[in-house]
Amino acid sequence: MSPRTGRPKSENPKNIDVKVRFDEESNKKLLEYCEYHHITRTEAIRKAVDLLLQQK
């Protein structure tokens, strides 16, 4: 029997899907931020949530 192939299981899987609606200006600002910092929109939104939660 051959060993399992593929990616190993993640310790913290991202299996929850969230849909967000933005207006044109907010989306433009988000895309500019992401391009400047070389990150994805998802990464930027996760960082924003973390910052909000740190402000308790």
Q: Quick one: biggest sheet?
A: none
* Rg result: 16 Å
Q: What is the helix/strand order? A: HH
Q: Approximately how much beta-strand content do the residues carry?
A: under 5%
Number of helices: 2
For the secondary structure, the number of strands is: 0
Task: Give the termini separation.
Answer: 52 Å
Mean pLDDT: 92
Could you please describe the fold and organization of this structure?
The chain is an all-alpha fold and 56 residues long. The chain has a domain at 24-55. The protein is 50% helix and 0% strand. The protein is built from 2 helices and no strands. It starts with 23 loop residues before the first helix and ends with a helix. The mean pLDDT is 92. It comes from Schaedlerella arabinosiphila. This is CopG family transcriptional regulator.
Brief sketch in words of this structure:
About 50% of the residues lie in helices and about 0% in strands. The protein is built from two helices and no strands.
Features:
mainly alpha; 2 helices; 50% helix; 56 residues; CopG family transcriptional regulator; elongated
